[in-house]
Amino acid sequence: MINLHTPRAAIMMVFAGFGAAVGCWAGAIPQVMAAAGIDSFTLGLGFTLSSLAGVSAMALGGIIGRRFSNRSVMLGVLSLLALNLILLLVATSFWLFLASLIAFGLIISLPSVIHRTSAGTAH
Question: Which of 10, 68, 91, 104 is paired with 75 by a 20 to 30 Å CA distance?
Answer without folding.
Answer: 91
